[in-house]
Amino acid sequence: MIIKESIIINAAMSKVWDTFTDLTCWINWNSVMKNVSSEEKCLTNGKNLKCCFRPFIFPIQMRIKVEEIIPYERIVWSARKKGLFAFHEFFFQKNERGVLVTSKETFSGFLAGASGLLLPEKRMRSLTRTFLKDIKKAAES
């Protein structure tokens, strides 16, 4: 399953990037990922962060590994959890209205392949849209 969504953020690239990469401020804007913790204050290539998200009634604890950071262009992270692998790419592009942020998340494994019963696409798409709206609101304020 692949979930791809985009949003235009009416702010300077530096503001969008700093808001997205500064883990210390995620508590103020990120309504999708809760209890985010890391040894680093910012997203750092090769480092991990822990978080909790709630795609269903029960919360799921995740450990995310930052796979790649190309400043002002791309962030890639991945997560594994019993029968699920998620590979998440974020792309940042300047345009005439601000910054186009695109999220592309690829899910594989048993949970992703069970005909969508255990990992419904509609719910995952909704979480992605909420995350993008959250970063938009934070960067534009």
Characterise the protein shown here.
This protein has about 140 residues and is α+β, with helices and mostly antiparallel strands. The protein has a single domain, classed as Alpha-D-Glucose-1,6-Bisphosphate, Chain A, domain 4 (2-Layer Sandwich). Helix content is about 25%, strand content about 45%. It has four helices and seven strands. It has a seven-stranded antiparallel beta sheet with strand order 1-7-6-5-4-3-2. Helix 1 (about 15-20) crosses helix 4. The mean pLDDT is about 90.
Comma- or semicolon-separated keywords:
141 residues; Alpha-D-Glucose-1,6-Bisphosphate, Chain A, domain 4; 4 helices; alpha+beta; globular; 26% helix
Summarize this structure briefly.
This protein has 141 residues and is α+β, with helices and mostly antiparallel strands. The chain has 4 helices and 7 strands; from the N terminus they run βααββββββαα.
